[in-house]
């Protein structure tokens, strides 16, 4: 059976994606910087290739288009933010420590991605392909946080609202607030995180558990 050039190119591109590799990472990093600095509309394949110190043909060896590399970044950032809400690496069941750790991790995830989080927030309402990925991440993080609060011992917390409503408020505060201070100083970012943790503790109503 004959194989067309386009089919061969698609197979080679898929193999490179599966294999990962330094060149693909360089292109993703360059695209992230361009989107962050210039916005999506002003970024071109040529600018991404130049920022990665490579050529247009090399770009197309890894990605079909600017849209494809955008969606690869949306998927990556969404996965990173979702992973911050995992309790797998937290060696405590103390609600105060768990909430502090997950809120700090989420804020750090936003800080690490510069203006990309703001860009994806703006694009999701007008682009279905971005929304599918981005809104799925938001639903999953909300669902996980809601399930955690709902499962807490009533003797340890006094929730001011039912869990789902409270989670929407807390996630909006940390998500949008972190975007605003992402380019601030280390001290400003740390103060923001500390303030958000205190707000969460008050709204969740974490009780002091007597020792002994």
UniProtKB/TrEMBL annotation:
Matching InterPro entries: Homeodomain-like_sf (IPR009057), HTH-type_TetR-like_transc_reg (IPR050109), HTH_TetR (IPR001647)
Q: What is this protein called?
A: TetR family transcriptional regulator
Q: Which PANTHER family match?
A: HTH-TYPE TRANSCRIPTIONAL REGULATOR ETHR, HTH-TYPE TRANSCRIPTIONAL REGULATOR RUTR
Q: Which residues form a coiled coil?
A: none
Entry-linked Gene3D superfamilies: Homeodomain-like, Tetracycline Repressor, domain 2
Does the UniProt entry include the keyword Transcription regulation? yes
PROSITE patterns given in the database record: HTH_TETR_2
